[in-house]
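Notes from the 1:1 (GR / supervisor)

We went over the backlog. Supervisor wanted to see one worked example end to end before approving the batch request, so GR pasted a single chain during the call. The sequence is below; no edits were made to it. Supervisor asked that the structure be written out right there so they could see what the output format looks like.
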Amino acid sequence: MKITLVKKILADGSPCKKCGDVLGRLEDSGQMSRIDEVLVADERDPNSPGMLVAAKYSVDRAPFFLVEKEDGVVDIYTVYFKFVKDVLEQKTEEKDELKEILDQNPDLDFL
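Structure output shown during the call:
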């Protein structure tokens, strides 16, 4: 299995805040050692490696993870906590996963 993290640089050259948060979590937990490759999606350069991968897989948010399995199937994760639970097989809190989903989709709300 190969895990690729795609992080974003904004059009003004600043790093994506959410990407920084996720990188910090990965480093603090020791999970960064499980990431095989980090690509940068630079909004100022549509040909940057991360932008090309995002276009190829029709991903419109960052950060995201590509998980390439032995059989060549690629799974895409845009929710950090789901990635941690499903791929890294570590315990997460459901409330954290739901909060991240809501933060990424402001048009959603609890019923």
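Supervisor's comment: The beta strands are 2-9, 37-42, 64-68, 74-77.
Batch request approved.
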